[in-house]
Amino acid sequence: MIEFLTYLLTIIGIWAILALSLNLQYGLTGLVNLGHIAFFMLGAYGSTILTVVVGTNVVVGLIGGVLLAAAFGALIALPTAHLQQDYWAISTLAAAEIVRLFFKNTTIGGTYQGGPHGYSDIPQPLLDTLGNQGFGIFYLVLVAGFVALSWGLVQWLTGMPFGRALKAIREGDEVPRALGKDARWLRIRAMALGGGVAGLAGVLYAHFNAFVDPTYFKPLETFIVWSMVILGGAGNHLGALVGSLIIQAIYNSTRFLAGAVPIDADTLGSLRMVAIGVLIILVIMFLPNGLVPERVRRYAHTRRRQGSD
Amino acid sequence: MAEPLLQTDNVRKSFGGLTALDGVSLEVRAGGVAGLIGPNGSGKTTLFNVISGFAAPDVGEVRFDGARIDGLSPDRIARRGLVRTFQASLNPQAMTVMENLLLAPQQQVGEGVLAALFRPGAIRRQEDQALERAWEILAQIKLDHQADTPAGSLSGGQKKLLMMGQALMVRPKLLLLDEPVAGVNPRLIDGIVGVIRALQSQGQNFLIVEHNMQVVRRLCDSVTVLDAGQIIASGATDEVLQRDDVLRAYLARQSGR
């Protein structure tokens, strides 16, 4: 039970980082990114290839994976910056599939490595020293630390003038541009930052699971991240955390519900997605701003101190 | 005499078969409030779009502050000190009045990610300055009791005021106002006219599109009249508004005015 709980919390943490990064792109900047899983994959594959094929240590793998995903974020934002929202969304979906199919059809590091075989024996830091259970707890603490770091980063950027400018372009380019804001450059940076954070989640996943292959990174996974952001409350980073907690708990519910309800495991597995779908519909109908709505920063109290009337 | 602050030279712009601007040469000199009037569909907004970079002219040049600006993107033109407002409110509705104002200042250190990391002190100072200026402007445009109201909840007139306040935060060399009093509560119109006049006496330059002739008379030192994409008159406000062809252009097309 402890082992499963450790596993579940680690997975929740990794997906929380993904949800935070999508929240930076969609919740804050309004970028309908339907290819978010590509950043996750690039982080996972970047670090895997560095550590397994090139033979670097995990820290280098982590930095490499994050940078690769961030660079991809900037790259897909560059040629598409002039597209309207719906066209832009489709292009991100296509970009993610291109990334997945590239890795599916490319063997890097030997005949039975990469491609459809994926990669196994991805190094798990300190596994030998700590043993299985110790590693599980160590990794949970590590992931929790990165969740805190990612949350701090997006929260802090949101409060900065940078975050304010992102919020402004969320509702259209005209006014920000008329005020001298480079909307395209803001968008590129939001994609790169969000991409880098999502890449971090991918790195963490690869070294946790010790195995990756292209089937892990299908478009459905992007929609799982979306459901976390929508459920939690787009624009509120705490909401992204709450959303990932609830969705991952449902997603993994087969393991603890299997004995408790008179439904066989296969049906239960399929019902998970139904449950997530129903939950999303209910939230959109009754709580359109999510469980934890976006918060507005108040300034009225600054008046007496600053005011000059 | 010195070069005009803003100058368009033979600007043409058509949309398909419709010629919106047919060789417009306009001059705006520093040190006053210039008006741009004309009946609906005469090309005023298109001219504003061309000047502010939201539309590129087919032919012709736009010069501002001694340099060509036609073909530049709107944000680059704004950074050179030419800021515009819009006829309809396009402001971020979910952002509050104060957030809208604080968005406006240019060269904000905190809009850079790395700078935000390494120069927190500079950001604080800029924010404090911006906040102070924002409260002054809010008092002038009578929105100081609604600093934390989402822009989307304001009335149409208040949204206009917000847009102007935002533009004022920038302290531009030239401020283009697209119908600043249309839809504004008559009691507030006097206030807006007063604000514009006060700013003008402090050296702020304006180019204003406006339909309210009383306001044009009270505000503008000079006016240019556009009709069917061409300038039909230009000069001191009182003289231009008395000309027959100007009256005809207005009366022939605008019933009840």
Number of helices of chain A: 13
Q: Give the biggest sheet of chain B.
A: 6 strands, mixed
- Helical content band of chain B: 40-55%
Q: What overall form of chain A do the CA principal axes indicate? A: globular
Our measurement of the CA-to-CA distance between the termini of chain B, rounded to an integer number of angstroms, reads 37 Å
Largest interface: A-B, 37 and 49 residues
User: Would you identify the regions of chain A where 5 or more consecutive residues have pLDDT less than 50?
Assistant: none
Oligomer: heterodimer
Mean pLDDT of chain B, rounded to whole units? 90
Helical proportion of chain A, percent range: over 70%
Integer average pLDDT of chain A: 92
- The number of strands of chain A is 0
Kindly, what is the distance between the CA atoms of the first and last residues of chain A, rounded to a whole number of angstroms? 64 Å
Total individual domains of chain B: 2
Query: How large a portion of the residues of chain A is in β-strands, by DSSP E?
Result: under 5%
Question: What is the CATH homologous superfamily assignment of the largest domain in chain B?
Answer: P-loop containing nucleotide triphosphate hydrolases
Order of helices and strands of chain B: EEEHEEHEHHHHEHEHEEHH
Helix-and-strand structural type of chain A: mainly alpha
Output the CATH class name of the largest domain in chain B: Alpha Beta
Any overview of this molecule?
The complex is a heterodimer of chains A (309) and B (257). Chain A has 309 residues and is mainly α. Chain A has a domain at 2-217. Chain A has 13 helices and no strands. Chain A has helices at 2-28, 36-54, 58-80, 85-104, 127-159, 161-170, 174-178, 183-209, 219-232, 237-251, 253-257, 265-286, 303-306. In chain A, helix 2 packs antiparallel against helix 3. The N and C termini of chain A lie far apart (64 Å). With 257 residues, chain B is α/β, with parallel strands linked by helices. Chain B folds into two domains: 1-81 and 172-257, 3-Layer(aba) Sandwich (Rossmann fold); 92-170, no CATH class. Helix content of chain B is 40%, strand content 23%. Chain B has ten helices and ten strands. In chain B, the strands form two sheets. A six-stranded mixed sheet of chain B has the order 6-7-8-3-9-10, with helices on both faces. In chain B, strands 2-1-4-5 form a four-stranded antiparallel sheet, covered by helices on one side. In chain B, helix 7 links the parallel strand 7 (174-178) and strand 8 (205-209). The longest helix of chain B has 21 residues, at 120-140. Chain B starts with 5 loop residues before the first strand and ends with a helix. The mean pLDDT of chain B is 90.
